[in-house]
Amino acid sequence: MLLQGIDWIILIGFFAVSLGIGLYTAKKASKSQEEYFNAGGNMSWWLLGISMVATTFSTDTPNLVTDIVRTNGVAGNWVWWSFLLTGMLTVFFFAKLWKRSGVLTDIEFYELRYSGKLAAFLRGFRAIYLGIFFNVVIIASVSLAAIKIGGILLGISPLQTLLIAGIVTVIYSSLGGLRGVVLTDFLQFGLSLGGAIAAAYIAVSHPAVGGMDNLINHPDVSSKLHILPDFGNMEIAVVIFFIPLFVQWWSVWYPGAEPGGGGYVVQRMLAAKNEKHAFSSVLLFNIVHYAIRPWPWIIVALASIIVFPSLDDIQTAFPNASAQIIKDDIAYPAMLSFLPVGLMGLVVTSLVAAYMSTLSTHLNWGASYVVNDFYKRFINPKSSQKTLVNVGRIATVLIMLLGGYMALQLENALQSFSILLQIGAGTGLLYILRWYWWRINAASELTAMVVSFMVALYFAFVHQYYFESVETHIELIVGVAITTFSWVMVAYLSSPTSKSVLINFLKITKVPGRGWAKIRSQMTSQEAADADPTLFGFQKALFSFAIGVIAIYALLIAIGKVVLKSYTSGAGLFMLAIVAFALVYRLIDKKE
């Protein structure tokens, strides 16, 4: 066990503060399901933005980045950097619409946008599908990372790690509801970022690495430093760059990067004070998440290539670690074993904070679906607020138990990332267009969800036994094509949503766009006035979206260039980022 007395004091002190915040907010959270799951809809943009970042700052993320860098170099991160496009689409096209909708969860949206029994079925089915199944997969992924950190740094078994971390997190997350989660996230983010930077500094200082200059010039590392892929090797470039940037970001549903917004991102926007706070929170999230945060992890991953060139080296260094968990992603916690006393406690605490932040969000978010969109809607519509909060706490425990069990079945972080991408393949475009095209209905959405899931099951459990295996990116493209074709055909062939529901949706959200022209032409003059769009037009939205993407990508690469000591190109990119952000600010100011 690598932790010493001072390290344990730091870790236990963090637990005490987190539980204190939970206790402080528990009374208010118990008043109603809106307080418990939505913090009363009165939170500030900066708290919500940081909370989103803290949620994605999970223990499995540095492991995932390490896996990617050791396998495909720095450029391999485009498989997730591409989701910035999704995030900026949410900023300029969907943030205000979600806040304006007035729903408690994004699942409640279905009966606002669609009509009939199929809409009700879709709401209930998706509440269980996402609230339990998808959250279990995410919880399993972050718990797997906790297992690997516990095995390397604490010398405890996977089951012991899950019992300790799971019990502490469930107690904390069930006390204060979303308000407690958001307030604690602010503390957790600071610890997580500080811990990541400290880990990067110690990694570069390792005797085998010998400083930043030696790291950059090491023959095993220098070939992996390119931020853009080697376009001379198109086979790799297609997989890690072109497919993510041209197909994956708009076609795949992935938690935290849902096309059109969804999940805990929507939960945070719905908790905002007003539309402007919702808009600003998502913009802040995208800046910090994509541009600022990744580089400390990347530095540790690069250093690990020198210290642990192969998996055998990691196994030799940690002979008591289970052979099942020795994969490339474990190189990150392996590098943390070199931290000195005191700093070890800070970094381990930062990882625990990251774990708790992600886990508590997914537990609260998943429970909100189970309570608001399944139990209250279909089981007990007349239930009291006290009952709803209690059911939410029971659901929290159930989701954690299932997630912990699944964590014991996974082997690495990249594995679960690929599973989630394939399951959501082809659904993304529907989630974007359902706001802007009246013809999409409950049948088309249900089709997209079922078909994408069936295709994922086929590739995971059928195809490999009867045919030659295919690459993951080919599976993704096939899944996108089949799913998209299926839901578009169903949208045209099935009965449309009732006119009254569509008109009411327009009146509430005031969504703009030519995709609603047919419905607007059937409105009375009063209805048309009530549904008059207040968001600025598509051309300005698209321009703002493009400039925002350029600004954040320029900042991302600029920071990387400076970290890797390419100061001239880094300075030029910083200037581009500043100009682009200034233009975005000007557009936002005019918009408001």
UniProtKB/TrEMBL annotation:
Transmembrane segments: 6-24, 36-58, 78-98, 127-146, 152-174, 186-204, 236-257, 278-311, 331-355, 387-408, 414-434, 446-467, 473-493, 542-564, 570-588
UniProt entry tagged with the keyword Oxidoreductase: no
Keyword Transmembrane helix attached: yes
InterPro entries per the UniProt record, alphabetical: Na/Glc_symporter_sf, Na/solute_symporter
Compartments in which it is found: Membrane
Example of a GO MF term: D-glucose:sodium symporter activity
One GO term describing the cellular component: plasma membrane
Topology in the lipid bilayer: Multi-pass membrane protein
Entry keywords, A to Z: Membrane, Transmembrane, Transmembrane helix
Annotated family: Belongs to the sodium:solute symporter (SSF) (TC 2.A.21) family.
Name this protein carries in UniProt: Na+/proline symporter
Species assigned in the record: Belliella buryatensis
